Amino acid sequence: MFSTTTTFLHSCFLLSCLLSALSCVSMFSGIETGDLEKRDDLFPQILRDEAVARLYELGKEMQITSMCVSFKVSDGKNYLERTFLSPASMRAISLIRRWMEDAGLRTWVDQMGNVHGRVDGANANAEALLIGSHMDTVVDAGMFDGSLGIVSAISALKAMHVNGKLEKLKRPVEVIAFSDEEGVRFQTTFLGSGAIAGILPATTLEISDKRDVMIKDFLKENSIDITEESLLKLKYDPKSVWGYVEVHIEQGPVLEQVGFPLGVVKGIAGQTRLKVTVRGSQGHAGTVPMSMRQDPMAAAAEQIVVLESLCKHPEEYLSYDAHCSDSTVKSLSSSLVCTVGEISTWPSASNVIPGQVTYTVDIRAIDDLGREAVIYDLSKQIYQICDKRSVSCIIEHKHDAGAVICDSDLSSQLKSATYSALKKMEGDIQDEVPTLMSGAGHDAMAISHLTKVGMLFVRCRGGISHSPQEHVLDNDVWAAGLATLSFLENLS
């Protein structure tokens, strides 16, 4: 339990209970009823109507006009933003706990802000299935990234609760809403799932945000006095866990292109995040001759162009040796992506040659050896450019996560559950359920250090994510919930 934050969370919980007691106008616009609505085994009121309404509740401002109450689950004024243990995250915790309890689950919040809801089923001593996703968001986010996996899991368990099957589950099932996957505030990902997986080193507590506030101090501000010992205690015993399943929007266009609402994930690309600092000689923009400049901006610009070229054409840069084979380069050609997402300069004035430029590099690939080869070659190129331009360079590794291959048995079960769900909704299914690779990182990457993992992707419009334009069809939310329900009902 998360007893040190009970007082703070209690006030949030009372507010959420007040809101639930009121007859709020639903933010969900219903679909026309038909024959499917009459099927008891499809649970449209829970898996579609209520699930969609809850996604909107987490993703939009909810207003109760009769009391003039505004209840926002966002830290942004006119956009969705919910970062690690922010005020909006605290409100989200209250909502999610209430929904879990409504589904018949026992709930608690741990010292890293993860929300847990558990049912023991018929055998409380059996290894548990973990299922969930993250409740934090990027800045100016969409409402489905992360939240869909949490809501789908809760909805499926509520359907089992309603039909009296919850206590008949063959093993314990625990839904977890992870507190931080995106890493927006502290620029380090998987704070929530990493703690549970036991891969979060104690030094993580010393990481600072842009205002130089360390994680451990921020936690203290929220009445959480965490220590290295208590952090280690958050790790689950691998012997107590059977597996982990995550439902998530695809964040890509493949499912929409093939016309399928769901797809099974076969693996997740490995990721590396670098921070590159280039230091030169600060000077007056009008008086320092071009030939005498040590301009870190020009050096950084050249490095970024080299990065783009390397990642577009790795076969032209990487040398073939024992660590970088022909198959590795071919894999990189189809999966490697590189991004510079943030650049800052000092002193950042239009009439000053900057003294320092800092930028981030995000590198992702399915092949870990290939990704390491890219990082090695890129680092070499960066230092060469710095030497040539008489500036200095520092390359810091901010995040590394190896590629994850999903468990074949879990993937097979998820595929069967998908067939079952879509057959109930649409009749006979002729097409094969798509199998996809994920270029985006997910909590499953962290949990893979604890247990076997499986993932189910849900179609999203235009493949758009990390944007207010992110959208999932109501019936696809339904399909995700129904597939999750089928998976749970057939747990071994």
Automatic annotation (TrEMBL):
Keyword Hydrolase carried by entry: yes
Regions crossing the membrane: none
Residue ranges constituting the Peptidase M20 dimerisation domain according to the UniProt record: 270-381
GO molecular function ontology, one term from the record: metal ion binding
Catalysed reactions, semicolon-separated: allantoate + H2O + 2 H(+) = (S)-2-ureidoglycine + NH4(+) + CO2
Plastid recorded as keyword: no
InterPro entries: Amidase_Cbmase (IPR010158), ArgE/DapE_CS (IPR001261), Bact_exopeptidase_dim_dom (IPR036264), Peptidase_M20 (IPR002933), Peptidase_M20_dimer (IPR011650)
Subcellular location: Endoplasmic reticulum
Gene Ontology biological-process entries: purine nucleobase metabolic process
Stated role: Involved in the catabolism of purine nucleotides. Can use allantoate as substrate. The sequential activity of AAH, UGLYAH and UAH allows a complete purine breakdown without the intermediate generation of urea.
Family membership: Belongs to the peptidase M20A family.
Protein name: allantoate deiminase
The organism of origin for this protein: Vigna radiata var. radiata
